[in-house]
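User: Predict the complex.
Assistant: Input components as received:
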Amino acid sequence: MNVEFLFFLETVLNGLMAGVMYALVALGFALIFKASGIFNFAQGVMALFAALTLVGLQTGQVPFAHLINAIFGTEVHHFGWELPAIVAIAGTLVVMVAFAYLFEGLVLKHLVNQEPIILFMATIGLAYFLEGFGDLMWGADIKPMDVGIPSGGSFWWEDVTREWAPEGSDYFGMYVDKLDVVAAIVAVVLVSGLVAFSQYTKFGRALRAVADDHQAALSVGISLRTIWVVVWSIAGFVALVAGIMWGAKSGVQFSLSLIALKALPVLILGGFTSIPGAIVGGLIIGVGEKLAELYIGPLVGGAIENWFAYVVALVFLLFRPQGLFGERIIERI
Amino acid sequence: MNARPDSSEFTGARDDGIAKGDTLLEVNNVSLSFGGVKAITDISFDIKKGEIRAIIGPNGAGKTSMLNVINGFYTPQQGTITYRGVPRRAMRTTDAARQGIARTFQNIALFKGMSTLDNIMTGRITLQKRNLLWQGLWAGPAEREEIEHRRTVEAIIDFLEIEHIRKTPVGRLPYGLQKRVELGRALAAEPSLLLLDEPMAGMNLEEKEDMSRFILDVNNQFGTTIALIEHDMGVVMDISDRIVVLDYGRKIGDGEPDDIAKNQDVIDAYLGVPHEG
Amino acid sequence: MLYREAGDFKTSYAADLQTFPIKSERILFWSFTAVAFLVVPFFINDYWEKSILVPFLVWSMVALGLNILTGYCGQVSLGTGGFMAVGAFACYKFMTAFPDLNIMICILLSGLVTAGVGVLFGLPSLRIKGFYLAVATLAAQFFLVWMFNKFAWFYNYSASGQISAPERSIFGIAVTGPNSAPWATYLTCLTIVFVFAWVARNLTRGRVGRSWMAMRDMDIAAEIMGVSPFNAKLSAFAVSSFYIGIAGALFFSVYLGAAEVTEAFGIDKSFTALFMVIIGGLGSILGSFLGAAFIILFPVLLKNLMVGYLGWPTDLAAHFQIMIVGGLIIFFLIVEPHGLAQLWRLAKEKLRLWPFPY
């Protein structure tokens, strides 16, 4: 294999890895959209909030320390203990479930039967609220995340790929981050789990019924509110997983919430309701973005990552408005 | 600028150059399907200028699809529609509206955020001409045009006896009144062909009588040609001149009310005789 | 007793079509306008100009534009920041390329340029709806900001990548640049906003406005009534972008004086504008002003309260601010989707019956 091709391969591989990360976020979107018809703009902030909570619990931060100090003039910041990662993850899950429960009771319940676009805007409000709340609770500084996931380049893979290059060329092997590999494995497990859950459990069946037709589901005795709480909890769980992966990669900070913006074009490609669509869409965007940066980027001055995915999605929308895996809609009047 | 409209303000139907009794619209061998599902199979019939033509049939017979084909919302796979002597298959709905085909809908499709007045004014949108710049300036031509059309719309409001709800957002109106506003919106376009999709569905007897009266008045006073879908057989037999009967997307009867009442196929379809073939 | 329509009969359709059909409302409006034009300029100081009045006016213009698109025509846009950037950069290019051109003309031309760009990015709306379109407009946001950042021609190859407004004057009085007096910038913005609010009102009450609202409420039925989606949607995009472009030009030239694209016209601006429209009232001219006033004033008040009065650190106030704004968005969508403007309308209803509510 010549070096050119190896570079191409490396780009594709890294694109796939990045795509998995996008897919992780997109998955949360697709789940909520499928079950409640809500386009949850706050999914990215939920990932940020979950990551903040996880780090906060793990390092024994005092919640709202900043506020407490401001009001009472105290100097509290840490409890002085450290929790094992697994306990902190469990704790964060509890918080996310509580969040889902509160959100359903305080907001969703009152917005039933509103138009999708109103619900969409409500989730933008939620995103802002949660961001402010998370910062208030845990502070806005950048925090490192360490839950014991290996990271850094894989030397083994570098060695293997170096062998592929022709003799004498100065090719040092492909760089693949171990963290990305773990993320990919986690994503595969997560998706298989979710698919199995929605296909083979009684609850999954109820979930699909709700997705199909709210009214009809209600009439056969499915509790919409329970479904919503569960779905938002699952979305919270997915957000946590995404938060861990992204947090371990680049630290827990505000920019984490912006991955939501990355996931939007993924959804458009995959179709909002399709779980496999979210994965495939994520991979396409990931690879496309990296390749475009490599081959088109230099022509227009680089840094096209920000909008390239959107343009791909937009062009795609014009030809297939329902996404790759979405169903065609027949308009009736 | 007298606020009191009189009926001469509203001529009702535009002059389309077709004499009363001549063919206004002709449907020729039209077939329509979605994916593999056939909604309409090889249907032909005509509508004559000035008549009330009813389209009846059991649920799922393809009645609404037929109206959708006539005003260009669906494009049939086969057949032609000849309107005012011009044959076509595909047509943009906006063009159909410009050529004088107006309609009401089975499930009310009013503009919920707008008042009764604005809804009916929207019916005149193809007749208003002032562009964006004049509209932005308002004073002068745009305002004059608005007032001119407002006068016509007030005549329609008068005609339909809905003066009291002129400025009410239509979302707040009861069902029967919404149906009436929708009729008003269609009338405002001064249609040569008015398509009514179940104008009396879900109404009580009194409301049905009112609506029948309006439909007959529109037909008598303005000479508007009407194609109507309706389930209430009594009403259909009373007000329509000719009837087409559809069943499973096929035409099974066509003629005057008395003939239809005697038609064995129609009776079978309605009484649910097992379908063969 | 103060607010009555009894005895206020309309004898012509023209009278019935007035913006303020009730006399007391007309009096209120014109006295308010008179104070804004004739009294405020004599008392305005630097703080009021820079922190409250000029940003309020500029953002009102943005909100008006977005309200036309989202509130009246029902097309949600998250590209507002990008369109403001187009207005700002167009204005900068006109100002520097044609130094003799009157600043008002520069601003209007910037609006036209933005209208063109808006139509271009509005094209997808003919195929896609709802949040699919919202996502498509994000493409505009990211692409435009990237473009103004990447191609040095747009910022005249300045080393910092910033654009800064040279001094320009109207009737010999500086309205841009560091020497402009508070009253001059204020009056410039006020005049533009006043004129275009009136134009917006005209557009929304006639044929064009009805075609937008028909698209918003029931697009299929609208099409069947003869409303062309092409004309309705693209004209909404054009007019909306025109307003936002003018606002962007004012934001840069009159208000900021100098701007860097990623900082001044980022995606947060798009959200800010959307929040103004939601809180103020979708589909309401008055609502655009109320929403802008709320979003501009609220942080000022909160900061005064928390930092000035309670003595808390500023970052706490900032956290509370985003939290409360987010919460309010949800609150308004649940309780009153038509925003502050609707509350005003309800208050008027109450006042009309007062003191005999039954």
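DSSP finds 14 helices and no strands in chain A.
Let me know if you want any component modeled separately.
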